Amino acid sequence: MEQGTNSGVTEFELHGLSGPRELQLFYFAFFVLFYLSIVLGNLLIVLTIISDPVLHTPMYFLLSNLSLIDMCLSTFATPKMIADLLMEHKSISFEGCMAQIFFLHVFAGGEMMLLVAMSYDRYVAICRPLHYAAIMSVQKCTGLVVGSWVIGVLHSVSQLVFTVNLPFCGPNKVDSFFCDLPLVVRLACTDTYVLQILMLADSGLMAMSSFVLLLISYSAILVTVRRRSSAGMAKARGTLTAHVTVVILFFGPCIFIYGWPFGNFPADKVLSIFYTVFTPLLNPLIYALRNKEVISAMRKLRKKNISSWKL
Fold this sequence. Notes:
Elements: H1 2-6, E1 11-14, H2 21-51, H3 58-75, H4 78-84, E2 91-93, H5 94-127, H6 132-135, H7 138-160, E3 173-174, H8 181-185, H9 193-228, H10 230-259, H11 268-288, H12 292-310
Parallel strand pairs: 1-3
Antiparallel strand pairs: 1-2
Helix pairs in contact: 2-3, 2-4, 2-11, 2-12, 3-5, 3-11, 5-7, 5-9, 9-10, 10-11
């Protein structure tokens, strides 16, 4: 980081959500509400799964980790964005900018792998039910979760190692509400063609390959259920349609932004909000709050808390 700070730029200005004062206050209220909903909703799911032994299964173990990583993904930049909406000068230090890039790719990369792990769990449960207990053991589930975090960290380090030593000597305005890697690299005072290829090979390939694996997995599940019963097909189609919707909303912006990392598209700002703010709120709604077992466990948890308060 020393080279970056010694090359003339010690901070970056964030111009993502600028506008009149009234609009800034509207953004502030809107994103405060959204962020609280994300944190409280995902935290409720984690506590519900931990508290109910019925939910101590591989599927809900992976789901609780998805809620955890969603809280992290929404926290790496959203609180600062909310605070910046009340300030005239929206800036972030060079070190803070590099930290945002690092955590974004850790959490986003980890979530991609975790979604693939969850689709694999559903594939085994539906397509190979007799072998499910043997395949999805405690050790296997733990390995999938740990592997997701490790891949996220390695993916992030591979991106950041080429970025921290870039010379930043001129403009420092980032047209986003956080330090997004393509936008920051674009400000470097050097030829970034090689870095563009590396970013395309890393982030773009990772997002696209994970997305394809998810579609293949869900397609195999639907084919298997269709062969068994029309009633089961209708139920599975409704569930998987909701899952695929969340997957598209998360992977679509990532593929668009990092598949063409140095294209200057006005939609990039909106797409960044989708996978860092909106998707972490959609996940609990789609994966948990439409699930009868989770809702039943939440009711038990509420009754238990009410009883303890009365005592």
